[in-house]
Amino acid sequence: MNLTIGEALDLEILQGFKLLAGKKGLSNPILNVAVWDYETGALIEENFRKGDFVLSTLVAIKDKIEELEENFQRLIDVGISALAIRPVYIDKVPEHIIRLAERKNVPLMMFDQTFTEDVIVGINKAIVEKQGYKKLTMKIDDILFLNLNEESIRGIARKINPHFMENNMVAFCRKKSKARGMINFSKEEVEEIGCKVIPFKNGHLVINTFEKHDQKEIEKTMFRRLEWLGFTQKDYVVGVSGLYESLGKLSYSINESLYAFRYAKIYKRDISFFNDIGINRIILPILDNPWVMKYYNGMVEPLLEYDRENETELLKTAISYVENNGDIKATAEELFQHGNTIRYRLDRINKIMAENFNCEHFYEELAVMVRIYRMLKSDL
Fold it and tell me: Under CATH, which number does the domain 285-376 receive?
């Protein structure tokens, strides 16, 4: 688990960095921070390594800026993660250099008003912290996948944070695509109040524990913590678990936060609570069950095949119909169709399902199929 360029750009010390090209390379891992001072030509291969985040004023070619492309290509061939230029000897990066970075998926940045030494310290600190989080992530995986008893889960939880209390509620937070900025928390302060923030699945698990069991007070406290930590609904999508009175049930809390997050993503919510997502509380946990998939495929495949062969939109109609709670008028308005067209399509869907699947309760089974379809098409 390595720090990526995208994660580094979220560090406070890098807030003044402007990305010029290479957005597709933001997932490149950073293994080291290197300064390009004097090296040109073959010296680049001798002094730089794969995974280097390279910082430079271009002093090595200050009198021969036309050699930037050749030397940048050498850095790319070595396998650097990114190049960040401080505009001391150039004011603007040439367009052909920007195109090269874009073509090779190597992030190219410019930065000013930030000392190179501070950048090195900040990134190296983040690299070390990210490596430390790898062990925590493995502990979370143990809790979720090893089918442990409550006492074993409690023991692992205490190793994650010895200050954990019994009552627990978990939030899973993932940054919205355009948001920037790191979470702002002091490790010691967070742990001492029985809380822990752990990077997980491209987001953060915020494990909250509490001494007293008071649902309303705990929810208020948790939201204050999330705000304090920087997990605002403006910048993050948040899924929240129910409240559990035993730390040994932490696996339930974690899973529920992930399910609630997935629901929030599907239905474009800023925040969702597991206890408020209705029938999806049943569907989400069983999506991997082979019998569920057999049931689902038996219903959805005939509709997909009919749509492919006849260039129709029966599945799209079914989704809209269910999402509008069986309201034909609302479905027609959403799809810009006449109500009679929707009725015809629904009749066709009913007949196809009856031919391929013994479907006695049309709307109920259609609704389950649509819910499963939406969940499977989402990506946590």
Answer: 1.10.10.2840
